[in-house]
Design a protein that fits this description.
Radius of gyration: 26 Å
Shape: elongated
Membrane topology: Single-pass type I membrane protein
CATH class of the domain at 228-394: Alpha Beta
Keywords: Glycoprotein, Kinase, Leucine-rich repeat, Membrane, Repeat, Serine/threonine-protein kinase, Signal, Transferase, Transmembrane, Transmembrane helix
Helix content: under 10%
Number of strands: 26
Order of helices and strands: EEEHEEEEEEEEEEEEEEEEEEEEEEE
Number of helices: 1
CATH architecture of the domain at 228-394: Alpha-Beta Horseshoe
CATH topology of the domain at 228-394: Leucine-rich repeat, LRR (right-handed beta-alpha superhelix)
GO molecular function: protein serine/threonine kinase activity
Subcellular location: Membrane
Strand content: 15-25%
Distance between the termini: 68 Å
Protein name: Putative non-specific serine/threonine protein kinase
Length: about 400
């Protein structure tokens, strides 16, 4: 028996459900149910396989007796007000495949039993108050895990090298914690990894070269750490499927490799707030990225000219090169190759010359930021055709 309730209800957990002794699937998500979760639900529903109660107002602790639901495969209590610790007994569910306890007020350590559930494919504990560190043998008890979301907690310690043994892993989300140490080289041994998010931690040292050779990756997010070193010159040769690259707010130096142009699926390239440097360090080849939508290289030490190829990217919507040492002038035909550009930030550089009249052809432009440069001439007549909601920073 399956019970789906899609209507909006506001009350405590319905007692009448207890009489449905053959119930297998219980979906009561996104309502206004409140109060504590019933302790005896497994006693009344020994065959239940799915309990989806996310998006309610349940509070109190997670009942430890729910480990008696031996047929349970999918447990979702996300987006409630649950508090207390995660009971160790949750690891006694022999068939559990999906566990989602994200966006609650759970605290304390993550029970080691959670990392020894051989059937689990997805674990999400995001945005709680969980502390402690990941077990060093995390990769030894999760042969089927595909998605691990632990972001938005208070986890410390290092990323265990044994994570490389979770061979089915496609998503590793550890953002917004207090992780320390280096990124283990062994992460590059994950053959199916698609999304790697380690941003907003205290990670330091070099980015392992192995990370840039995971052919399955679509997202790399390592922003807001203390990572140093330079990008490998062959960065573009091992990432055929990468779509989003976030490396901002670190201590990366060196140049932007020309081979970045080989990451042909790239839509977002963000390296803001680093120490990138060198003459003409914005390679002309960036303009060869056929799908790039957002380019953010602001607040670095880049100098030289802005490659003309950047102003001929038909897919680009945001260009931000603020607070560098870029010089030269804007191309007179700037408005002819940017049909989708919405935001252009070039402030805080050493740009000279005039503002081209063709800027009026960038019909989608909503923000034009050119402040703190050395531009000359007049500009009033150049903006007649620009969207009335545009914000201009020209001082």
């Amino acid at each position: 028996m399956t019970l789906y309730i899609y209507v909006t209800i506001s009350d405590y957990f319905p007692n009448e459900i207890g009489s449905l002794d053959k119930l297998e699937k219980l979906w009561l998500g996104s309502n206004f149910l409140q109060g504590h979760l019933p302790e005896d639900i497994c006693q009344h529903h020994p065959n239940i396989q799915q309990m989806l109660l996310g998006g309610n107002k349940f509070d109190g602790p997670l009942p430890s007796k729910w480990s008696q639901c031996k047929q349970l495969r999918w447990l979702d209590f996300s987006s409630n007000n649950l508090r207390g610790t995660i009971p160790h007994e949750i690891g006694d569910l022999p068939n559990l495949e999906k566990l989602n306890l994200g966006v609650n007020n759970l605290n304390g350590l993550i029970p080691s039993s959670v990392f020894n559930m051989s059937t689990i494919t997805m674990i999400s504990l995001v945005y709680n108050q969980l502390s402690g560190s990941l077990p060093l043998n995390i990769g030894l008890g999760l042969p089927n895990l595909q998605e691990l979301y632990l972001g938005g907690n208070k986890l410390g310690g290092v990323i265990p090298k044994s994570i490389s043994n979770v061979s089915q892993l496609t998503v590793l989300g550890l953002l917004n914690n207090s992780l320390i140490g280096t990124i283990p080289h062994e992460i590059g041994d994950l053959p199916n990894l698609e999304k790697l998010n380690l941003g907003v931690n205290n990670l330091n040292g070099l980015i392992p070269s192995s990370v840039f050779n995971i052919s399955t990756l679509t997202v790399i997010s390592l922003g807001s750490n203390q990572l140093s070193g330079s990008l490998p010159l062959n960065i573009g040769l091992g990432l055929p499927n990468l779509q989003e690259l976030y490396l901002g707010e670190n201590k990366l130096g060196g140049v932007i490799p020309k081979s970045i142009s080989n990451v042909s699926q790239l839509t977002i390239l963000s390296m803001i707030y680093n120490n990138l440097r060198g003459t003409c360090t914005i390679p002309h080849e960036i303009g060869d990225l056929p799908n790039l939508e957002k380019l953010n290289l602001g607040v670095n030490n880049l100098n030289g000219l802005i490659p003309s190829s950047i102003f001929n990217m038909s897919t680009i919507t945001v260009i931000s090169l603020v607070s560098n040492q870029l010089s030269g002038s804007l191309p007179l035909n700037i408005g002819l190759g940017l049909p989708n550009l919405q935001e252009l930030y070039l402030g805080g550089n050493k740009l000279g010359g005039v503002i081209p009249k063709s800027i009026s052809n960038v019909s989608q432009l909503t923000v034009l930021g050119l402040l703190n440069n050395s531009l000359i001439g007049t500009c009033n007549s150049n903006f007649v055709s620009i969207n009335i909601h545009s914000i201009l920073f020209l001082s």
